[in-house]
């Protein structure tokens, strides 16, 4: 809890003695904020900082003068969202996760935005009440009294007061910064008595007996702050046509964007290990920036082989190739390795699941809907199948949409995973996959074995109608002269 953690944060006396008139500079680990806390002639500061913080808060300031209030700072380095498009539900879920609280402990959540805040730039303010259950007092064993008889007198139930929940009036400020989201959280406790609590909420801020104005307290603290990271400019965010370093391109859906290289360094820093694109980035995540969770977009990721990647053949002509692809996707979604045989050589290929993306499990008997995709100079697979996010009994049912093709020694997977009510994600994904192309496709063909080329070319699938049956009579005819010469030599 912020308040309990902050109460032990006392400013060091050494700071009060050195440079008493100079502000106390405090750098907050992992956040883009630097604070300069003013001090009086004696070196005392109105705000003190806490060396022990709650989950998700790097550091907090506490003002002891009544009404008491705390202001904490946090940083979530994942990706830079579009703050103006965040919903109440998204903001509530984000803060609950960062502060390690259940979403149901939040109430009365309201949002407001401010452009060009003097310190934070574009910012989303979230005002809410947080209800925290008090920690139960430890049980104490009754003392043992030797000798004599004690007559116990029952304590009336009304005399045992149940611990009251702690209700905080809070304001959070969410702001984008390069490669992440910063947040500032101000909190003030309401009185325990329900009537006093209602009166405190109705009183003017900082009125006698009232509750602190958390908005004013936050602005006071931000007046001491300086930002050290700038927001990534819109023109530097990958939108529209995206060309990957490893040789493919697609059109990013309207309103979506690809994660930047800096953002991808957190999620999936892996590089192509072999071939003409060796050393190039292997994965890219595409997201709707109107969310605080980039794992609900779709991912395109390549893997390198020493020979041929998985081949694409019409399942009607070769069910084995279709089954190979399904097995390959199942392993990839779990971050497992799979064995690939090419030209008589077997190798083990492993595809890493990007950070924070939960493994998806697809039962072996789930065949889904597998279809062919026609691309310039090659074919691809599209597979839609049901799966689960997690392995326990409460695992979420999801729908997986997978796209695959190959060039040179690379195989590529593009995958979207949609939960209940996320059908729009699948539509967006499929729309984007129709724009997929391999750059300079003539110079980077899909490598197929001789038998795979034959199966694509020969129109018949029945074993009795295969071209190789013509070779047998010709072979037998070639043996006739040999047997004749042998027989004549014996006579």
Q: What does the average pLDDT come to?
A: 78
Helix content: 10-25%
**C-alpha Rg (nearest Å):** 33 Å
Overall spatial form: elongated
Low-confidence spans: pLDDT under 50, at least 5 residues?
1-19, 203-209
Look at the helices and sheets and give the structural class: alpha+beta
Number of helices: 10
Describe the main β-sheet briefly: 8 strands, antiparallel
The total beta strand count reads 23
Question: Termini, distance in Å?
Answer: 107 Å
Strand content: 25-35%
In short:
This protein has 10 helices and 23 strands.
Characterise the protein shown here.
This protein is α+β, with helices and mostly antiparallel strands and 491 residues long. The protein is 20% helix and 31% strand. It contains ten helices and 23 strands. The chain has helices at residues 2-6, 13-17, 88-98, 194-202, 214-222, 261-267, 319-333, 423-433, 450-457, 471-490, and strands spanning 24-27, 33-37, 47-50, 59-63, 69-76, 106-117, 121-132, 166-177, 180-189, 225-227, 241-243, 248-251, 257-258, 283-287, 298-304, 337-342, 345-350, 360-361, 369-375, 378-389, 396-407, 410-418, 437-438. Strands 13, 14, 15, 18, 19, 20, 21 and 22 form an eight-stranded antiparallel sheet that branches. Strands 3-4-5-9-8-7-6 form a seven-stranded antiparallel sheet, sandwiched between helices. It is elongated. The protein starts with a helix and ends with a helix. Residues 1-19 and 203-209 have low confidence and may be disordered.
């Amino acid at each position: 809890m912020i308040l309990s953690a902050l109460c032990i944060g006392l400013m060091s006396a050494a700071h009060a003695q050195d440079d008493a008139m100079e502000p106390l500079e405090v750098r907050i680990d992992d956040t883009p904020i630097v604070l300069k806390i003013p001090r009086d002639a004696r070196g005392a500061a109105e705000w003190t900082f806490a060396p022990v913080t709650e989950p998700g808060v790097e550091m907090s300031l506490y003002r002891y003068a009544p009404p008491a209030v705390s202001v904490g700072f946090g940083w979530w380095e994942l990706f830079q969202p579009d703050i103006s498009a965040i919903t109440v539900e998204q903001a509530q879920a984000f803060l609950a996760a960062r502060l390690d609280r259940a979403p149901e402990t939040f109430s009365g959540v309201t949002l407001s935005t401010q452009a060009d805040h003097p310190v934070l730039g574009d910012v989303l303010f979230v005002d809410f009440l947080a209800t925290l259950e008090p920690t139960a007092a430890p049980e104490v064993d009754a003392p043992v009294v030797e000798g004599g008889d004690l007559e116990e007198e029952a304590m009336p139930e009304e005399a045992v007061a149940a611990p009251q929940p702690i209700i905080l009036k809070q304001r959070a400020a969410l702001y984008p910064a390069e490669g992440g989201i910063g947040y500032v959280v101000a909190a003030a406790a309401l009185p325990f008595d329900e009537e006093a609590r209602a009166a405190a909420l109705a009183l003017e801020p900082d009125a006698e007996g009232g509750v602190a104005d958390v908005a004013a307290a936050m602005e006071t603290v931000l007046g001491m702050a300086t930002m050290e990271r700038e927001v990534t400019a819109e023109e530097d965010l990958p939108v529209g046509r995206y060309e990957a370093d490893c040789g493919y391109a697609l059109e990013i859906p309207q309103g979506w964007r690809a994660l930047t290289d800096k953002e991808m360094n957190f999620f999936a820093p892996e590089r192509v290990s072999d071939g003409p694109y060796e050393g190039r980035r292997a994965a890219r995540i595409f997201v709707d920036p109107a969310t605080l969770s980039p794992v609900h977009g779709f991912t395109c990721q390549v893997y390198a082989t020493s020979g041929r990647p998985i081949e694409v053949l019409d399942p009607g002509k070769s069910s084995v190739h279709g089954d190979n692809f399904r097995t390959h996707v199942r392993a990839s979604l779990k971050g497992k390795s799979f064995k690939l045989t090419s030209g008589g050589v077997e190798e083990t290929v492993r595809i890493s699941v990007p950070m924070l993306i939960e493994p998806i499990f697809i039962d072996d008997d789930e065949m889904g809907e597998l279809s062919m995709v026609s691309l310039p100079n090659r074919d691809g697979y599209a597979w839609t199948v049901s799966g689960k996010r997690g392995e326990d009994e409460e695992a979420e049912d999801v729908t997986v949409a997978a796209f695959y093709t190959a060039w040179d020694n690379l195989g590529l997977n593009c995958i979207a995973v949609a939960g209940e009510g996320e059908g729009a994600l699948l539509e967006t994904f499929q729309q984007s996959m129709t724009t997929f192309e391999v750059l300079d496709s003539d110079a980077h063909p899909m490598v197929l074995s001789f038998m795979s080329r034959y199966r694509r070319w020969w129109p018949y699938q029945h074993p009795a109608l295969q071209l190789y049956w013509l070779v047998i009579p010709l072979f037998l005819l070639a043996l006739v002269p040999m047997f004749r010469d042998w027989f004549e030599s014996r006579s």
